[in-house]
Every structure is written in C-alpha cells, then in structure tokens.
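Supplementary material to the annual report.
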Amino acid sequence: MRLILVIGATRTAEIPGISGAGATTDGRQHTPAADAEIIEYGGLVRAPILPVSPSGCPTPAVVTRAVRDLVGFQSLTLAAGLAGDTAAPTVRVAPEPGGDIRDPVPVPDAAGILRTARDLGRRLPDDEVMVAESIPGGTTTALGVLTALGEPYGVSSSLPTNPVALKREVVAEGLASSGLEPGAAAGDPGRAVGLMGDPVLAAISGLVLGATQSGTHVTLAGGTQMIAAAALVRHAGCEAGVGLATTVFVARDETADLHDAASGLDLELSVTDPGFDGQAHPALAAYARGEAKEGVGMGGALVLADRAGVGMRSVRDRTITVYEAIRTQHEP
Amino acid sequence: MRLILVIGATRTAEIPGISGAGATTDGRQHTPAADAEIIEYGGLVRAPILPVSPSGCPTPAVVTRAVRDLVGFQSLTLAAGLAGDTAAPTVRVAPEPGGDIRDPVPVPDAAGILRTARDLGRRLPDDEVMVAESIPGGTTTALGVLTALGEPYGVSSSLPTNPVALKREVVAEGLASSGLEPGAAAGDPGRAVGLMGDPVLAAISGLVLGATQSGTHVTLAGGTQMIAAAALVRHAGCEAGVGLATTVFVARDETADLHDAASGLDLELSVTDPGFDGQAHPALAAYARGEAKEGVGMGGALVLADRAGVGMRSVRDRTITVYEAIRTQHEP
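Predicted assembly:
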C-alpha cells in the first residue's frame, strides 16, 4: 500500500471567502507544501507555518501523519502545479499552478498532465494505492468540473459554513468565460479539467486511469474533490472498481451528496469516524464543529488504521502528539 | 535514521573509459535515476534499463534496496543536477548537470547548491542520517576536488582496473583550464567544487555542513567520492564527528588510500563485507572480482543490516531476489 499525495495550487483559492485551507489568502499558498512535509517528516522543514483554518483547525495532514506513525505506510508526493518550494521529495507532473477558473483556460496543459500522470500510474509497482490531495480552493474547481461534465453532485467545504452561493457564482462565471454550457464537456475529461478544473484534479484522474489499467487497485482518499476526480475517470470510460474513503465530517455535510455521488459513480464507499466529537483538545474539537472535514488523505489513513487493528483512541492520542510537536517546533 | 541519496550528472562521465556506472556512455546518463527508483520502489518505473557495468555487474542500488526490504529505513533523494526524469520523488537542490571538469567552471552555481543543501540539512528532523551518492564519473571529479584542495588521497573506481592515468590526465587538464595549481583551493570548498567538482559533491558537502550544525549525526555512505565530500566539509571548517561507511571492495583497492584518508580527515571508518567472495550467482560474483565496489549507499546499508542483527546471508539472498525481479521485470 502506498499513499500518493497530489499537491498543487489554483488561483481560484485567491477568491476571498472561498477556502478554509490556511488562515489567510497569503498563508494558504504554503498549505500543500506544508502538508507534504508533515506526511514525509512529521513536521515542517521548509514550510513556514502549520496550516490552520481561519478559526485555528489544524490541517488534516496531522491526522494522516499520526496514522503513518502508527501503521507505517509508504508515501509518494506528486507536485501538480505547486506554488513555491517544498522540502518534501516530489515527482513533478505539472509545471505550474492552475489559473482562476473564471479565466477561459485555467489549466492549459491539462492533456499533458493527464498523460504524464497516467504513464506514472501505469508503471507503479503497487497492488494497491490510496490517492490523496492538498489544494486550497479545490472544492470550487471540483464543482466546476462536475458542472462541466453534467454531474449533479454538490461539493463540501473546509469551512464550517459552505460558501455554496459564492462557489456557484464562480463556477457560472467560469463556464461563461470558457464558453461552456453545463454538461457540455460530458465524455471529455481533458476539456472539463482544462477549462474548469485544476492541475491536481488533472493529475489524479490521469493517475487513476493509469493505475487501474495496470491492475493496481485505487482508493480515492478524500471528500468531494475525489468525487470530481472519479467523475473525470468515469467520463474517460474507466469501469474499474475504485474505492472512495472519506470521513464522517464529509458524510454529514448536507451540501455534499456523498452517498448519491458514490453510488452514481460506482465507487466503493468507506466512511470513517475518528471519534473527535466531545474531545476536549482544540485540535480535535474543531473537526467536530465541521471545520477542515477531510483532505491530505485523512479518511483513507483512518481506513488503514482500522485495517491494521489500531484503535481510534490511539489515532486521537497520536494526532495530539504530532500537532503539539509541530506547534512547539519553532518556539524557543 | 534516514538514507539521503544524492543523484546527479557530470559531463566528465562522457569521457570514454572513465566510468563503470552503466554499460555504455549513453545508458550511463540514466543510472542515477534508475538507482533512485530501485531504492524507492524496488524496481524500475520510468528508467529504461537496470544499470550494469560494462561486464554486467549490477548497480549497488540492488544491495541497498535489499537491505531496505529487510530493515525498513526511511529514504530521501536529492536531485543535484539530474539529467532527465525520474519517477523517484526528489527534492531538487541543483538545477542542471555539471560540466566536464576540463571546462573552466564545470559547476557555475556551486555556492548556491552548497547553500540550498546546507539549509535543508540544517532543518532535517533526524538525529542521524546516512548520505549516499549516484553520479557516473564521480570518482574523477572527486580526484579533481581532492587535488584542488591539496589533499593527497587517491580515488577508487567502479571498473575492475582503475583508469588512474586517464583520471590524472583529466584532472591536470581541468586544473589548467581553471587556472588552478594543485592545492590552490585549500580552505575554499566552494571554489574547489565549482572549478573541479560536480553538483552532487557540492550538495553533499552542503548537506553535511547543515546537518552537523543542527546536531544531526552524519555517516557518509560511500567510497572515495565521500572522501572528497569529507575533505570539502573539513576545508569549510567543520570539526563535527562524521562517519564513513564503505565496503571491503573499496578498502581492498590499492589505488585508494582509504584508511589514510579516513584518518587524515578524522572520519569514523566502518568497513563492511557482504561475503560475496565465492558466491556462484553472477550478480554477487562480479563484486568479488572488484567491479562496482560501492555506491548508492551500499556500505552504509550493510552497516544498517548489521546494526539490526540481519545476517549477511539474508542480505545476499534478498539481493539476488531484488536483482532477479528487476531483470525479469520487462520480459514477456
């Protein structure tokens, strides 16, 4: 089992109020790099700050790393349009960040990214992989892709109150500037992700296509961004069995049609609950309030913990340990 | 413990007869990428062929990966002037391959590479790292650096008969074109590696300086290229304890003054013997004939096996398994 984390950036994240993946718009550009460093090293190396939501909820990378400490899975990070440097080792599959989806062509090299990631996916030696993401603004591009493909599913948010109206407005502007009607890119995933997506979605869908073609079982570890990735894969004609592992926080979100989407896209759904409700520690309590919800493979990592017989109490304890270690890392 | 593999290229490797790290001059440019993939995945992913010496001795990456399978250490690959792509995840610390050391300035950005690698080394979270290399032509640039620094030690070779006269001639030409007398760069490691070295040596010496500054213990896992790296570090004024872990194949090589060098540069020397003498399997027998000798952290990996209580018989068996798996990977 290998967890493949795909990190990147989209200018869509710069729209005020659109994302909770980072406390500020400026800080947010470092979130994917910091997430990858946390998974790789258990702490920050080059990244300047621990990503937190505007109200202080820590990145789900902390939970995924906690599980890694407990069960020891392998990882691989793909840089799909990363803004800035990271000390985490990466394979580069996209050269530059995606544009704002209100631009006509936010991912000009979508076809090239799909192809590069597909070739890599085909050659991976693993029987099984989980695919995770970190890209601020990613649920908005996911909604853009779903709309372009004509899929009816809604998307979740890393904010406690999903800015649904804003996302719909951004997507409507994006469709207009790209000259697309809703559903006009059905059956053409390269066009959908090139005109309305981001480089991470392009890379994930290519990776899944290649991996499934060579007999590797794929579980998409994430929330509604992975619904968009799965839709791209299905619109490319892939009929392979694909899993979707996410958290109860996404499943509870009424703005996301998780069960309908998993069923409509023929995904084997696993929903995990780390038992953060009623926990006193602020890093856990924020999740119980509906912040962050998912990302950086959290739901998939919880599946791995469960499979290894590691209880959620151990995951919670280790999550607090990882969080406190990072938080105090730069203190004197 | 983390094994940090630093991979890159130098045009010096294109000089006919200079290197055994790859069967042909053309194939040789893929050797570092293939080595990194073998350490990361246990097989080739993007790299087209298993690196072998001109007479068929497989890359020492096979031994290092065998030990990784048995004892499970973490790894990190730094790309220091890599030619071409690799599917192994890397942190890029140098932008382009080094030139031929017969050019006036083969590593124009030596100071920048040293700085980037030093900053990374300083921030690594590890208590202990081993540093390994893969760069064809690396013993010739190592001789260039040692000569520029005024260090009297000779270098080994991945070929069974060390082309010592050719290396000396190349180094003499390099010194002349760089306007350097032997020893003229003493105390100035940036100048020595910039005028007579390669980007991998620049990155390794920066990494060691940074890591030791932040209290991480470093073992240089390699042969006489690591003697050159250690010399750069000592000429930068570093007095920290540094280890050198290498194989009996380098220790036996009379053209390399291993013990003198380790003593002169104040390195804690470990010499390991994987017991390849008298083994029937051609992949092991070639080492016993003095081919390859070291590289890709082989000597360091054997130290890790020993430390974990894994016997050399297990290492040999696993080496054959890894080798056969890669060799048959692309067969129908």
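The mean pLDDT of chain B is 95.
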